[in-house]
Amino acid sequence: MLYQTKNPHGGDIYAGDITLDFSANTNPYGTPEGVRQAIRDCLCRLDRYPDPYCRQLTAAIAAFEGVRPEYILCGNGAAELIRSWCAAVRPRLALELAPTFSEYSLALTQAGCRVERYNLCRENLFDPQPDLVDRVERLRPDAVFLCHPNNPTGRLLPAAVLEPLLEVCRRQGTRLFVDECFLDLTGCPDRLKDRLAENPNLFLLKAFTKSYGMAGVRLGYGLSADSDLLAAMARCSQPWNVSTPAQAAGAAAVQETEFLSRTLSLLDRQRPALRRGLEQLGLWVCPGAANYLLFSGPEGLDTALRREGIGLRSCANFAALGPGWYRTAVRLEHENKQLLAALQRLAERSKQWPAAL
Question: Is 280 exposed, middle or buried (0-12, 13-18, 19+ CB in 10 A)?
Fold first, then answer.
């Protein structure tokens, strides 16, 4: 648990003042019933240790992803896998985007790694440009961390950058860590998993948290053709790190294809509607492809909304952003309308909106 440390992420609804949470990007439909039932069915086995090899879960993931079972390592959420990767590889120099998910640099720093950043800018819609590849060639880092789609921008990595970057990293022996935890919620057909065999330096991070509304279960997995890497990561993790309920939930979740399809249909409708609503309030919104949107607005917006019982993720702690940047989840239609109505009330009370509250 966190101890005398400020929570750097969204989703903290436990103080009792949040009734509608847009700060965490989980599935707007919640957890599928099949997953809930799988957890209920395994309760009679709680007196036994979990399967230390996650046999049933690994087989289910392999069938779902269409990869070999030996390419899979399961963990206690994506955050644990990020840390075990850094502890196993122990890179000396790594390059990451900015802004991006903060757990990469935290884990890298804990492993004694120096982190360089490639700054993204609003003028390019926070997309990395071809000079990122040149930067990797010049810097020759031990590792490159990418988030696809990026968090908090929601932007998918352009193929014109991703493809040459994959080749450069393979050629010069740079390890490429790609976080795909939100990819299944974009409808993007591009899958790097088909390139694993020819790129043993490539590691893909996946999680059940977002797609299946399983944040409280803590379950993720990594894909890699480098069996030595996966073995080293496993040695950096505690035994029985994937609980019996988590294993049962994951094996059930990958069967929920109709649930995932229904979610994508909802997001395809609600993401543009929420974006239009925010823009009509005079806010700049990054045109993301995931189940969240990054936007700029008046400083203190998250605090003002919290007084209305609404949680919003401040992005003030993201490198290359700062105060006045926010990330909102895309939720159900009536919930999105509640957020927009609350913002409208704040705008009407502020003579300087959207410059200030």
Answer: exposed
